[in-house]
Amino acid sequence: MAFYNLDGRVIAITGSTGGLGSAVCQALLDKGAKLALFDMDGAAVEAQATALGANTRAWQVNVCSMESIDTAMEEAAAHFGGIDVVIANAGITAFEPLVTGDPKVFERVIDVNLLGVWRTFRAAVGHVQKRQGYLMAISSLAAFSHSPLQASYTSSKAGVWAMCNSIRLELRHTGVGVGSVHPTFFHTPLMDQTFKSAAGSKIWKGNNSGLFKMVALEDVVKSIVKGIENRSDMMFVPKENSFVAHLPRLFRKILEAVEFKDSEVAAMVEAAKPAPAK
């Protein structure tokens, strides 16, 4: 695939004010891109656009609403004269065991992380097809490595991977590329939330070593930018984790034997139980 120059490209990104979103936006601006900033937090995204300057514009967007994302995408295309690239980046997480977890929390994670990506792509596809552009979704290594108490998160990220594979086949003949990004853990406010959770801290133990050692946010951002420039199908951060996608059954056995022993999982489940009512 020929190099896809980002200079002058119009890129729409959801979850633009988050830890990853903010860093990606700055990197894309540095490449000369124009940015349509979509975020649930209206005040934050307006402030972001003001800080980033003239080649950006902000929209308050709820990826759980087809009407909201449709309207924003139409307005962004009208404002910039079209859309070349869309990054479905909005995402949340939760630690909820099957037995005691809140069904609404599970549904919320799926709604944002999986259905939100579909809605974003659906709203964007007509515009992106006109420019034979590129659709990117931020998935996770969790698409292939499935931790306990995170059925909602791992299901959503595996679903995003499968969705991208399917949609890529649908759109390939139109000249549109589709890619999924699969980073391991990196420092963002979302990860801070994970480690503040009693269950999350037990499951991941700080991620300072082992299979899920933290990587630098800058490495994830570089991979995303390079992935767009190469119109890649899949991106892994770090690259050596790509074996997880090709050997999922073997990795599953290693994961269960090394990281998630029965006694440890029992403690994780206990930590995730709701506190007794006072």
UniProtKB/TrEMBL annotation:
Pfam families in the record: adh_short
GO molecular function: oxidoreductase activity
Protein name: NAD(P)-dependent dehydrogenase, short-chain alcohol dehydrogenase family
Family: Belongs to the short-chain dehydrogenases/reductases (SDR) family.
InterPro entries reported in the protein's UniProt record: NAD(P)-bd_dom_sf, Sc_DH/Rdtase_CS, SDR_fam
Keyword vocabulary terms for this entry: Oxidoreductase
SUPFAM superfamilies in the cross-refs: NAD(P)-binding Rossmann-fold domains (SSF51735)
PROSITE patterns attached to this UniProt entry: ADH_SHORT (PS00061)
Gene3D superfamilies in the cross-refs: NAD(P)-binding Rossmann-like Domain
Record has Oxidoreductase as a keyword: yes
Organism: Pseudomonas saponiphila
